[in-house]
Amino acid sequence: MSQQPRLLASFERPPGLIKHDYHDFVVDEQPLYNPSNSGTHTYFLLEKRGLSTLDAVHEIAQALNVGRRQIGYAGLKDARAVTRQWMSIEHIDPQRLTDLRNPRLRILHTARHGNKLRLGHLVGNAFAIKVRQTDVQRLADLQAALATLADRGVPNYFGQQRFGGRGDAWAVGRDVIRADLDSALDRLLGQPSPRDHGTVRRARQLYDKGSFAQAARAWPGMFRAERRALHLLQRPRASKKRAFLAIDKALRKFYISAYQSYLFNEVVAARLRGGLHHLHRGDLAWVHQSRAVFHVLDPNAEQPRADAFEISPSGPLFGYRMTEPDGEPAEIEARTLAAEHLTPRSFRLAGLRVKGGRRPLRFRPTQTAITLGADDDGAYLELRFALPRGCYATSLLRELFVVQQPLSGDTARTNATRDSLE
Q: How much is the pLDDT for 191?
């Protein structure tokens, strides 16, 4: 996947290390509503560190002896961070939650409410991020650049975490859309890359050699989908297609979603050249307050609303029922699909019908600030900002810094992969 262009292309970025420590990356969920203090559901504000959302759900479910699906949550948060988010469980005594003891989990507050918390029940997220090993003398430059982003908006790219630990989840999704499930399985189980290490790399090498039983034993236990596919490959009359289709449906949908995200990013990059704030005739404009879209018939009449950030051009999450623009925006989107030898009907798969949707091409960060700080680990720059739901902090950070992150362990599954399944 190619490096996407930046809005601030002429801004000379200093290097910057993020997530040196969990406490360097703090996320506070901004809820869509407050609990009413009555009802059968117990809402609880969870602070977690070093755990993905689904890992936290698993540990809470085990500790309380409840099913994981009984636990509701509004958003999916990073693992290598300190995050605070609301969750819910029905028919449980709040005291059982406040009594929960786990070194990486803390229940900050409980309240009653009448319904289960579900994905999307949030306004957005507020971030406090310490950037280390950077040029703190560039503080004024960075403050000015951040102000520009708050005024013009940030390209609404899907972040790298959307594409899995190896960055190729979108390619698996493309294989699925093209009905090339043999290739999808080969990519999922084999073809080791420089990002693969240790037992995972060994498992991929064994698969490529056709040693399916040995590969199944080599994959760490947390890679349940991979191990299941390999066990099926050892059965009589097995095929790669059957093995791939045996993978959990939600995981297969994740790969398709990653491919939709990849294609959306391609459209953002193409539109960036003309300005993501600029409306064209035929655009489907995104209304930020209502999250609805409408056809732009007179761009000159609507442009003041875009300049005020009330609306923005939207881009495609391709699918067979996606509303399509007209004019030049339609041509850009059609060229993106044509380059992949696809049409919208390609997303009408048996058992996995992908309807599609729209997404704004830019987002506006609010409550923005950059300040200088220091602690036992040295000087740092702290960024604070809030983003609407579904927007990536990394898309903002890459406009300002050449971002570096600590290397993860060889058995770590990217949290975005698993966390995007529900």
A: 95
Q: Annotated catalytic residue: which of 78, 168, 175, 283? A: 78
Which residues are within 8 A (CB) of 385 and not within 5 positions of it... i.e. 6 or more apart?
126, 127, 146, 365, 366, 367, 368, 369, 393, 396
What would the pLDDT profile of 344-361 be if each residue is shown by its tens digit? 889 988 677 889 999 999
CATH number, span 1-156+364-422:
3.30.2350.20
Q: Measured in Å, how far apart are the chain's first and last C-alpha atoms?
A: 25
Q: Are strands 25-31 and 82-90 parallel, antiparallel or unpaired?
A: parallel
- CA 125 → CA 98, 380, 384, distances in Å? 24, 22, 11
Find out whether 164 and 261 touch, Cβ atoms under 8 Å.
Answer: no
Q: What is the CATH code for 277-360?
A: 3.30.2340.10
Question: CB under 8 Å to 421, separation ≥6 — which residues?
Answer: 54, 248, 250, 251, 253, 254
Q: Are 203 and 196 in contact (CB under 8 A)?
A: no
Domain locations in the chain as residue ranges: 1-156+364-422, 169-250, 277-360
- 283 tagged catalytic: no
**Do β-strands 402-404 and 15-17 pair in parallel, antiparallel, or remain unpaired?**
parallel
Q: Minimum mean pLDDT among 47-56, 146-155, 293-302, 309-318: which range? A: 47-56
- Please, is 287 exposed, middle or buried when counting C-beta atoms within 10 Å of its C-beta (0-12, 13-18, 19+)? middle
Q: What integer is the mean pLDDT of 312-329?
A: 95
Can you give the pLDDT at residue 193? 93
Q: What is the phi/psi pair of residue 188, to 5°? A: -70, -40
**Largest distance between two CA atoms of the chain:** 66
C-alpha radius of gyration, the chain, whole number: 22
